Amino acid sequence: MKHISDPDHTINKRIHRLYPPEIAERAVNSIIDLIFKYKQRIISKEYHLSEKDIILITYGDQVNRHHEASIQTLKEFMDKHLKGVINSIHILPFYPSSSDDGFSVVSYNAVDPHMGSWREIESISSDYRLMVDGVINHVSQFSDWFKAYLSGDKYFQDYFIEVDPSLDLSEVTRPRATPLLSEFTDDEGRIRHIWTTFSKDQVDLNYKSHRVLRNVLDCLFYYIEKGATLIRLDAIAFIWKELGTPCVHLPQTHELIQLMREVLHEVAPEVIIITETNVPHHENVSYFGSGSDEAQMVYNFALPPLLVHSILNGNTKTLTSWAQTLTLPSDKVCFFNFTASHDGIGLRPIKGILEDEELEYLVGRVKEHGGLVSYRTEPDGSESPYELNCSYIDALTHPDEDDNIRFKRMLVSQATVLVMPGVPGIYFHSLVGSRNYHEGVKHSGINRAINREKYNMDWLENEVTTQGTLAKRMLDSYKRLISIRINEKAFNPFGKFKFLDLDERVFAVDQHCKDDVERILAIHNFSNETVTCIIPDNIEGTLCDILTSNCTISNSKEYKETKEITLEPYQIMWLKGRI
After folding, report:
1. Confidence (pTM)
2. pLDDT tens readout for residues 149-175
3. Helices marked H in 468-546 — which ranges?
4. Beta carbons within 10 angstroms of residue 187's beta carbon
5. In b/e form, how buried is each residue of 490-515, taking b as 16+ CB within 10 angstroms?
6. Active site residues
7. Nearest C-alpha neighbor of 194 from the set 236, 234, 138, 154
8. Measuring CA to CA, how many Å separate 96 from each of 92, 105, 145, 238, 288?
9. Residue 109 in contact with residue 219, Cβ under 8 Å?
């Protein structure tokens, strides 16, 4: 086995592709030292994803109790309501931050004292698989790194990107309708125009500095030492900048992700890299790389808006057609499927999937439901809808509609995520059926606050235990679906799958377990109509609905008359059989 110092080692090769020879040699040596440092501190434990993996997405201060570390309170809620059902937790940035609910990181190696300390993080990671954010495209303007840069500290002078504002930057892809460059005054009174992709308070790091790479890797290793087994690379598509290019999805970006993965796997090969790239679907899936060298999981960003579009129209034609195009480069990677997150419902991922009129209709309906819309700046200076800001349950239902319809639509959307090939991610607010939080928008002035309400623990406990509340109904039903899913091998994220055309009101996926012994035909009625459809001839034998234990569905040459199945409005059927 080659040592990293060997020019033929892949880590060495990747570093030399990113940096000039002299700098590359220094980078190689610093990374060798880093790997040696953490091999002494991290105990690697083999792990393979399976049908049992479900990830809860939540803020560290999602639930609070007076005079108690909020991460401790969160663990109490999970232990009481989710233990044995959900095995993994993605705690959104819990580091000290100056804005954007944690995504303007002031210090990578600290825990926000309002949420707790590393002791609480390690406590939660001892009972649940922990996913953390690598917010490594940018840091807060109030971070020690940027303050040292402005003070003239020579070590940090190449940490950030200063650009002449007279240069033509129109080619750069803009995810927000904010200036690309922000003005800062250094300690000598000079104006610096610094690259800020997302906001003035989020100052982009310069990965052309090998010291930036080394210190970011140090932070990621530190998270692994504290119990992280999954690392989400936030906004990673924008991480490498080259003037005269769109500065998104550059070859160096992919090279950098592949390098990071390989370096981390030198110490902890069980760690899973998840890329967060809220971009058109065909660009998003490029982060799988070859299927063995880049992200092991990629956010399935087109799924959330397509589900809303399909349920609002009671028609799954577009959703099914898109799903039938889903392919994976190997059996070592899978999608991270979700509906809601701390961000809005992204619209860029469905560019080219929905027609402009369909997109306008979707935007209009969500606005009618009390939702908001955020915009981005196009290269020609115009603005276009970037994301829908709305709680997911309200995106699906008008405020005047009945709670029973609201519940059924929400549950069918969440059930679909549980049967999509890959690993499900469940936002805390979806789990309890949270509604639009307009007060949060009013107080913060931020559209995304509409889906980021934080709860008093005692109030929430009352909501999820009181008979008849939407929160209790949602949580109980969701837990029941998950409890069934995690015990079915056909839902293994690496099994075979096929999406079927049974009816334009129905979404159906046929999944096989890895050894091709069992299958589950999951059928979901997205409409408010009773639907009768026919099981395909190639699916034979007795099928049992594992949601109802009804095993009367038979599909064979002898029993042609029983091939039909009927679904009530928004009904879900998970039909299990032998292959």
Report:
1. 0.96
2. 999 999 999 999 999 999 999 999 988
3. 470-485
4. 11
5. bbbbbbbbbbbebbbbbbbbbbbbbe
6. 234
7. 138
8. 12, 6, 14, 23, 31
9. yes
